[in-house]
Amino acid sequence: MAAGPAYGEEKGGSSSLGEPEYGHDPASGGIFAADYKRHDDLKEMLDSNKDSLKLEAMKRIVAMIARGKNASDLFPAVVKNVACKNIEVKKLVYVYLVRYAEEQQDLALLSISTFQRGLKDPNQLIRASALRVLSSIRVPIIVPIMMLAIKEAASDMSPYVRKTAAHAIPKLYSLDSDQKDQLIEVIEKLLADKTTLVAGSVVMAFEEVCPERIDLIHKNYRKLCNLLIDVEEWGQVVIINMLTRYARTQFLSPNQNESLLEESTEKAFYGSEEDDTKDAKAEAAPLAKRKPYVMDPDHRLLLRNTKPLLQSRNAAVVMAVAQLYFHLAPKAEVGVIAKALVRLLRSHSEVQYVVLQNVATMSIKRRGMFEPYLKSFYIRSTDPTQIKILKLEVLTNLANETNISTILREFQTYIRSMDKDFVAATIQAIGRCATNIGKVRDTCLNGLVQLLSNRDELVVAESVVVIKKLLQMQPAQHSEIIKHMAKLTDNIQVPMARASILWLIGEYCEHVPKIAPDVLRKMAKSFTNEEDIVKLQVINLAAKLYLTNSKQSKLLTQYVLNLAKYDQNYDIRDRARFIRQLIVPTEKSGALNKYAKKLFLAQKPAPILESSFKDRDHFQLGSLSHLLNTKAVGYQELPDWPDEAPDPSVRNVEVPEWTKCTSREKRKEKVEKPFYSDSDGESGPTESADSEPESGSEESGSSSSSSSSSSGSEEEEEEEEEGSGEQSEDKEEEEEEKRPKRKEKEGSWQAAPGSAGSPSEEEEDEERAKKAKKKVALQGKKGCAETSEEEASGFESSSSGSDSGSEAEATQRKAPPSSRAVPKEISLLDLDDFTPPTPQPISSSSVISTSLVTDLEGLTLIDTSLAPTLLSPGFGAVRTYELLHRMAGEGLSVEYCFSRRPFPGDQHMVAVQIQISNNTDTEVKSLRVSEPKPLSGMRIQEFPEIEYLAPGETASVVMGIDFCDSTQAANFQLCTHTRHFYVSIQPPVGELMAPVFMSENEFRKEQGKLTGMSEITEKLMLSEKYRSDHAIVQQVTSAANVGRVPCGADNEYRFAAKTVTSGSLVLITLEQREGAAAQLTINSEKMVIGTMLVKDIIQALTQ
Amino acid sequence: QDYFGVCSEVMIKDNVVVVYEVLEEMLDNGFPLATESNILKELIKPPTILRTVVNTITGSTNVGDQLPTGQLSVVPWRRTGVKYTNNEAYFDVIEEIDAIIDKSGSTITAEIQGVIDACVKLTGMPDLTLSFMNPRLLDDVSFHPCVRFKRWESERILSFIPPDGNFRLLSYHVSAQNLVAIPVYVKHNISFRDSSSLGRFEITVGPKQTMGKTVEGVMVTSQMPKGVLNMTLTPSQGTHTFDPVTKLLSWDVGKINPQKLPSLKGTVSLQAGTSKPDENPTINLQFKIQQLAISGLKVNRLDMYGEKYKPFKGIKYMTKAGKFQVRT
């Protein structure tokens, strides 16, 4: 029993400490001499009917136990009190019982009846503690009673008691493993429990008792995944570890197929409301049909649900999730754990040690993951040595051609450390870097040679060993170094280093023909005083010299061999004898003699310096075995990925009454079905028949009136989830309140022209497009036009980037006719007028759409919050400029606008979004930019060629232009397959900058620097319309791409930006005076920009 | 720690019984059972003098006889029925700078480790939201379980039902990739000569990028090489000690006055006969800056829902040196 040892430790610890202090303790002081009398005293107290006396006695007894003294003769007296009413006395009696019951089994039985009564107590706390103690008493006779109690408790009303029952299972199992079958039944029952409290404990019991019964998990897998985030921390750890194993047996390896990377877009869902993701998933799943291989949605579910746990405060949880990702996630996604692990490096050194061990292993396999965090692994002089060495290991693993110079510089500092073990490790690390990265090999070697003149012997010895290894790779060029090292033999005393030098000289004696025999001579002189390892190398050297240069060294060799013959060490004697036979030709020597030279001077492969963590990855990360690098007791190998995916339908849940997860799960299943039957064709008819009727009804329910189904599920939630129902409902309500607001925001986001700023956004767009399409399709069938959807899809089609453009077109093409006509002509500006859809009489579809909107909202907000654009919250309208009128362009009309996003690839460029529509009735081919004629310094990054634009279609692309902070127009040609158009883009001054974020203080400080010439002040009268806060901010941010700076004063507004090319600051202050008067101040190094900006802003505010 | 203040040997010995009781609740068969201190406190009430007195008179116990509802409710970290006459919520934003500064004074690596510690004494079940002026700074965060993660993901607002009393709401990490302002600099001139057994030693500490705040509680420690016998130093301010056994030099500077920079000058006497140490000691620095969060994080507002009364709110910023090393 594990509790036993735990208490035992406690006892042992305090007893040894407490021993000398008997006198101070009231429990044992004074009465120590008369041992049995004291017990009489205690017995009397226990027998009294005063609770306080009993309590006092029990406290003394527990104190005795803690000291490690035997209190077992009090057993009868104590057991009597098990029925005591006072809870504290009772608890202490329990403590006592757990400690001594095994010794006095017969007497312990007396207490059993009390426990049995306790198990029926109305107070759940008492029921639980009775069960806990009962199961902790290791008396074999009561096994049946325990079994009964556990079974009963497993169906107790209180989750706390059920949890205790789960805890009792492994205890009973360890007492009597024959009960396994019955216990598994209980576990199965408890696994079906859906309170978070129980989940952790029962999985723990499962791991203890029957980890091989993976089939028990199937039905509960999804539930566990979904509950995971609400389970208490320690439970999370156990569950995550179990799920890792489960996933390894049930899913295919995500890394075997590259096409899978596409799927990774799905992970963006995890942030949004659960219900929504479920909906979205349900919709997205049929799409999957087209893909050749897709990760099992359940696999994805696991990854998605564990990811937020990376932000847990509990290091164990983070570590568990990290190992789960490492073992289960596709390569592209493993990176997310790096940040969390680096964060853990700040905690206690014990945690650091474990984390670094794991990081070291991971960094071998996935080097890229930790590269951005290289500096976090730099070593501080206050770190303990083992942490230093681990960090060094990680640094070495991370070294590559690009960062090697910084790492080596860092290593140079380490070499001068006072901690000599660490210095030695650093030298080895340098050696490893040198072997891994050919480029720096010479630099490293030179550095190491310099170290040879170090005063510290250990350092020198270590360098010699490393140099030896390095030289072995390319001996020819380095005879100088060898000579230098030969000289060192006089000084170096460390045997390992001496041996290394000798070996080196012997091996490459041809490169240093003069010195080698001399070294041998010296060594022969001191032979008897050398260490064994050196002696062996001396013999070796002698043999080699004899073979290459027998004239000079014959006698010396004979001498050395003779000395060795009478050495005390048999190893050396043997070696000498063996070598003599080999090299010295005698009449008896056989054929071997001829090959002696080949034997000794064979080409030896260079050693491979590799990490000691190389072979550790076969242990599960985060396990004890991994830490020790040996198999620990009870370690279970992490199973390999299966070749064939086991039948995924086993995870389907039959019981329909589970709400939240299951009903939605159902819907998901139904969509999954076709996919699976497509791909492996083994989802048997039974399963599909099994779930068909339900899913059918679900489908009709969901599509016809999903509002009712969602409210229905809410109700059910209340019934089902005793505790959490309330809160989730609250959330739901909150959610409901937020929706309109969110929608507004959504609208404004859409207004920001969605040129696909970064790849991820493109993905997002794509995803949105897909979903929007689905939505439209869904509604199309119903035939009810749904404004928000159309707008959304319209937005997609008009604004998504080059990649998603085609996707969006596809969306349009596939959209059913009812909604087709509307979105086509919606331009970005129209979206400004976006208003929430008017409530529809049948709210069925609008509920879906709101949830979709919120879903999208979740996605977009995450994204935009990272982009600086968020800082200018007010900018609504984005002006569109005409590049080519449809008349001039013979039907081809081109418009452009400034998307105000950083241009991917070059941050000095302004991103210009170009929208090309083909109004002709013939198709336009190979649309591209050609012959840009930029003014000096100006650069243009063309958009990728549009191969084909059908009549009536619109394409949208992004190009980057570096305007060099001037408002000069950029001229270029726009070519089609037939025509060339000369066009030019002239940026308004406000677009030449990007917002910067700064605090009020920073703003003041910067403003202080930019006075005098750089300051421009102008008075103005605010126009009627623009006197409110909001309007002013909006006008300014729409006139120029600036970010608002917080400001203490009410009537002052501050904005800051940086010019895109040179990055010089532009600071704007607007002070509102009495009435409409106001004063505008602009501080900027670029006076031209400043003046122009003043004009623009004044114009914007006075119109 | 919540029970006894400091976890010391004496403390454990004095409270053996309580420790037993607590452990009993925390672990079952070696598996963690309940580790949330709020729940434990309800199960077993921490010993206070008042309670001891009351207990001895009335004979009542300090073991709660009710199962804490928190254990079963959705907010396991908060006990029910909390009552205060003064409702207050204080938040401390504490940031620690971990940095390595190299010989020439340039920053090799610097990161900020921040925490928001809260002391919430509010009646009932308040639902708090905390919003930041610049939530973008927080990209690597770990939360107390009470924080609603989804709300943070979508709106960058901390929404939570706080535990009662002191707790760490979140901790964050501003990593080495971002630029970190280093508020102090150290000028040093430490040299040992091969010929003589004396070395020169000079350190000056000065403020840099402190945003106008005073640097307080400055403490310089340095582990001298083994060969150092003794040091004769005169500080311009504060006190210094050198322990010849552990070779640890510490200099308690106190406040830095930008007009008169504190310095420590003197000579180092080395053991005769030993060669000069081949490395200069690293200097560890400690300091505190009140009312400043060096990363620039600012709390925007704190709102409370779910309860009627108006709580007293307070927020404090502080920047400290974490592992702040200057290589010489």
TrEMBL record, chain B:
<dbReference type="GO" id="GO:0006886">
    <property type="term" value="P:intracellular protein transport"/>
</dbReference>
<protein>
    <submittedName>
        <fullName>AP3M2 protein</fullName>
    </submittedName>
</protein>
<keyword id="KW-0653">Protein transport</keyword>
<comment type="similarity">
    <text>Belongs to the adaptor complexes medium subunit family.</text>
</comment>
<dbReference type="InterPro" id="IPR001392">
    <property type="entry name" value="Clathrin_mu"/>
</dbReference>
<dbReference type="GO" id="GO:0012505">
    <property type="term" value="C:endomembrane system"/>
</dbReference>
<dbReference type="GO" id="GO:0030131">
    <property type="term" value="C:clathrin adaptor complex"/>
</dbReference>
<keyword id="KW-0813">Transport</keyword>
<dbReference type="InterPro" id="IPR050431">
    <property type="entry name" value="Adaptor_comp_med_subunit"/>
</dbReference>
<keyword id="KW-0472">Membrane</keyword>
<dbReference type="Pfam" id="PF00928">
    <property type="entry name" value="Adap_comp_sub"/>
</dbReference>
<feature type="domain" description="MHD">
    <location>
        <begin position="86"/>
        <end position="327"/>
    </location>
</feature>
<dbReference type="InterPro" id="IPR011012">
    <property type="entry name" value="Longin-like_dom_sf"/>
</dbReference>
<dbReference type="InterPro" id="IPR028565">
    <property type="entry name" value="MHD"/>
</dbReference>
<dbReference type="InterPro" id="IPR018240">
    <property type="entry name" value="Clathrin_mu_CS"/>
</dbReference>
<dbReference type="GO" id="GO:0016192">
    <property type="term" value="P:vesicle-mediated transport"/>
</dbReference>
<dbReference type="InterPro" id="IPR036168">
    <property type="entry name" value="AP2_Mu_C_sf"/>
</dbReference>
